[in-house]
Design brief:
Blueprint lengths: L10 H11 L18 H20 L21 H16 L8 E4 L2 E4 H23 L7 H14 L6 E2 L2 E2 L9 H8 L13
Antiparallel strand pairs: 1-2, 3-4
Helix pairs in contact: 1-3, 1-4, 2-3, 2-4, 4-5, 5-6
Amino acid sequence: MAESTAILDLEPPARQLTTLLSGVTDDQLSARTPCEEYTVGDLLDHLMGLTVAFRDAATKTSRPMSGGPPKASVAHLDADWRSRLPAQLDALVAAWRDPGAWEGTTEVGGVTLPGAVAGQFGMNELVIHGWDLARATGQPFECDPRSTEAIFALLSQSADADRGEGPFGPVVDVPPDAPLLDRAIGLSGRDPSWTSRAVA
């Protein structure tokens, strides 16, 4: 692991996401989210899969995969997601607390990458999709400063400034004096001012 790469604590964004899960009602599963391809139910199914994938990345556990990760859909959402997803988030956090998770290379979704980078992307998934879920369900969202700084650095490095493209789609322009989280949200291809009411 490069000396310049710090081990990140995924517990704060995971805890925030667990709090948000408790506020999701069954009638919100069909609601739209800032991630245009997902409803709330689709997003929860995506979180079910990514928490396992990034836990396995931390433990360097390889699972056979054909045709890439399955498309997330509320139709596939585990009926026990309310209990299973918080448990999977806890397991994810515990796995990334092992310094060995940040060393060497690993695999996520069929892609091989440095363990430290996988950990950064794992944190990014928790923060950005936590924000998605909060906005879609009308709940408050908080992100601790360390996590905000980490995902902003990752997204800034991954964005193609000349083409206006981020790792997850076209970058949304956000004023340079906006809060750092808003700027990170913009780099993720989302509008920081998105609300569920705007698309109702």
